[in-house]
Structure formats: structure tokens, C-alpha cells
Amino acid sequence: MAVIVIPAAWRTAAGIPHGKLECAAETVGDAVEWLVTAHPELEPRVLAEPGRLVSWVSLYLGADDIRDLDGLNTTVPPESEIVVLPALAGG
User: If you average pLDDT over residues 51-69, what whole number do you get?
Assistant: First the structure.
């Protein structure tokens, strides 16, 4: 099973007690669909529309940005970790 790592601020908003969620997914897109179905309050934070990430979120499969791979179609090997990383602002 893949593990999705959720940012701390989002865990509170979605009522997720732990930072890691397990899901069965063949692609990163499958994992994202599972995430927004299981936690619909996260959908506007992750998806601009079905199949398209919002511009301020990056997803990493292990150490690789999925934009450098095959995007949401990137295959998720068993026991992989998908990290959701929202942009940070400030100065």
C-alpha cells in the first residue's frame, strides 16, 4: 500500500489524527482521488478540477516531484510514499 503524507495544518482541518494515510493506488492520480473521497474537505486544497492539481501544491513520490515524472499518471510502486507539499509564503 502507498502512504500519503499530509501537511500538519491540513490534518487539523480534515480531522486526520496522524500525518500518514495508507491507500491502495496504482497511480498518483488514484491516490489523490482516494484522498479527496475519503477527506472531501481537502479537495479544494488539492484539486482545481478533477484530474488537475491546484498550482500551489506539489506532490512528491519519494524524492521526485511528480511534475518531473508522469504527473498524476505516475505509477505508484508498493510501499511508496507520496508527500503533499503546499507552497509556503512569508518573508
Answer: 95
For the domain covering 2-86, report its CATH number.
3.10.20.30
Query: Pairing state of beta strands 47-49 and 81-86?
Result: unpaired
Write b or e for each residue in 29-50: b if 16 or more Cβ atoms lie within 10 A of its Cβ, otherwise e. Answer: bbbbbbbbeebeebeebbbeee
pLDDT-derived band of residue 19, with 50, 70 and 90 as boundaries?
A: confident
φ, ψ (nearest 5 deg) of residue 61: -105, 105
Distance CA(42)–CA(23), nearest Å, equals: 16
Grid coordinates representing 88 are: 509556503
Q: What are the domain boundaries of the chain? A: 2-86
